[in-house]
Design brief:
With about 350 residues, the chain is α/β, with parallel strands linked by helices. It has 13 helices and ten strands. It starts with about 40 loop residues before the first strand and ends with a helix.
Length: about 350
Amino acid sequence: MSIRRSSLLAAFAVASLLLAVACGDDGGDASGGGAEGADDQRTVVLLTYDSFALPEEAAERFEELTGARIEVRATGDAGSMLTGALLAAGAPEGDVIFGIDNTLATRVLQEDLLEPFTPDGIDAIPQRYHLEGELGRLLTPVDAGDVCVNVDEAWFEDEGIEPPSTMEDLASEPYRDLLVVESPVTSSPGLAFLLTTIDRYGEDGWQDYWKRLTDNGVRVRPSWDDAYYNDYTVSGGDRPLVLSYASSPPAEVVFGDLDEPRSSVMTDSCGAQVEYAGVLRGAEEPELARELVEFMVSETWQEALPLANFVFPVREDVRLPEEFERWAERADDPAGLPPELVEERRDTWIEQWRELME
């Protein structure tokens, strides 16, 4: 996205970090362990967004296998990361780029940014995560996450109100002044929700839906942090409905030291996000870059993703942690638009939304 989950992406915390998608506690370099100071040790540079958290044990295993450490180079949110990478196409600041999602994917074609590479492990990834044509030869799916409205179940129980279950409910009288969402102009989940409304209501109906949301008192905040930490009732705010992630409930348990989450996921509101990795053209370590992308779809890396970044692995043959098995409810059919359509219409839709909300 031009404005990204600051995504999905992807670490959540209730106390200090949730997923400020984005999804960020690593603001600089990180390594997978080992002889970090050794001058002769090879390094593969992973270009990503600020909130990415390196799965440390998986990174250590990569170092054992290859003798190379992973250096994380974080450069803002995913949109900023991709913009910078496009400006440096052919002379990149890293070897592998990670965090390009399905709404950003077509931009990689603009400047011949990536080298074609298809890892051997790609067959273990369900077809629904794959991109078509040239994009599929450039980008490898690594993780998935749904952007969804989260519901403070305890608040609704205390108030004696039945929680909403559909998109239509959100625009109806019983839920007036209860919902807070992020702006699609400045926020990744905000853009994901805008695209969800367009997918659900179509070009002819999405603006009317937003008018009804506005008339029903929806509050719009610039970022996920603002909405979740300042307005959501779980964090002490006054809105028991917040646009967040399907993985927020297990994050509440892990970071809040709770026996069970306070929030649930309204699955009818979910929009799919998939994050991809690619080998940067002109990489200093092209061989290691390919090995890292290959490793990112291995069972070792995929199993480490949920509790490192609070996202779902794209491989379905890996074991999910108990917190995800119990509390990460996923939509059977999350909203999703073709990347080519998003690329063609994204800026127009955002501008239309901005004019509508003025």
